[in-house]
Design a protein that fits this description.
- The protein is 33% helix and 14% strand.
- The protein has a single domain, classed as Aldolase class I (TIM Barrel, Alpha-Beta Barrel).
- Strand 9, helix 7 and strand 10 form a beta-alpha-beta unit.
- The protein has twelve helices and twelve strands.
- It has an eight-stranded parallel β-barrel, surrounded by five helices.
- The two termini are 38 Å apart.
- By secondary structure, it is an alpha/beta fold.
- Helix 3 packs parallel to helix 6.
- It is globular, with a radius of gyration of 19 Å.
- Bound molecules: flavin mononucleotide.
- Flavin mononucleotide binds next to strand 4 and helix 10.
- Pfam families: Oxidored_FMN.
- This is Alkene reductase.
- GO terms for molecular function: FMN binding; oxidoreductase activity.
Amino acid sequence: MTCSIFSNYNIGNLNLDNRIVMAPMTRGFADNETGEVNYLIADYYGKRARYGAGLIITEGIAINELAKGTFGIPGIYTHSQTLSWQKVTREVHQYKTKIFAQLWHVGRLSHQKVLGGHAPVSPSSLAANGFVHRLRHPYQTPKSLSKQEIYSIIDDYKIAARNAMEAGFDGIEIHAAHGYLIDQFINEKTNLRKDEFGGSLKNRLRFLDLIIKQVKKVVPKNRISIRISEKKDDDKDYTWEQPEEIVLAIIEVLTKHKIKIVHPSVENYDYALKNDKRSLHELFRQYWDHTIIAVGNIDPDKGSSIINKKQADLVAFGQLFISNPDLVIRLKAKQEIFPYNTKNQLTCLN
Ligand SMILES: Cc1cc2nc3c(=O)[nH]c(=O)nc-3n(C[C@H](O)[C@H](O)[C@H](O)COP(=O)(O)O)c2cc1C
């Protein structure tokens, strides 16, 4: 049977109307003081649902007060933040679209000016290169986390995940990509720890492993997606020396926990990994029979071909979903798709 991006799909006993996913995208429109989301944000997600998105993955949502990397980032660690997300899930569910909350901690990619005077945290006390989004200050040297603090953050993931369920989300995505906190543990360059959270790859994956273990207690395991990437937002030249070894070790953790969804994040779906002839998706598909969400500069034709060839099960669009709230309608009708315009898109939410 041939499949298209418009064929339905079952994910964690949720029936998706089609294979089209709205990729997680930080927009910076939450209340900076409270971390709550408002009706404008509910309307923004609601519109993409009304026009038929199969699944929406929200922007990164902070799991605690030190998890934010810039201004206007929503949270899901207080009661009022949790309630505010109900506006979004209610709006989206009116149209039968499903929605996952992306749980996020930026670790060292932040600044005390964003964190109410607190230093950013990371596995080791090493500053990132580059500048804090919107603030344009260089990244600060982070505080190295004590073991007690690590366990407390793991607990915060569980609380955030439970709050996400209370807010009416259908599932969650753990953001373990792009050089943020979980990735700072996985990356040998940013994790110089000598304890059980550093050193071997197995140890560096322990933080992710323990987060999944806790989160699984409050979210059905087949509704947990894990986002992984070689690319780091603060280190454009970063390369996995042994991509296959990393991917296999990640799959081992996911298999142990019976996690069924991966979302390998790349700039361009077709690009091979820097040290491997294959792309990250190919590598996952070779060893992974469960759901893969494809992403990265995918156009409509490419999306259909990915699904047809079973290279992935779902196709996520990022920037095109910002410039075309009615992307699914346009894809179905083969209408013009408007290109993403960075300047306009960062100043208004529509
Ligand atoms: C404005 C913007 C914000 C983004 N924020 C996030 C985010 O919060 N979490 C995340 O995992 N990826 C984020 N991304 C990456 C996207 O999810 C996606 O992987 C990327 O845009 C590539 O897909 P595309 O070529 O279809 O846009 C963001 C991308 C953009 C353009």
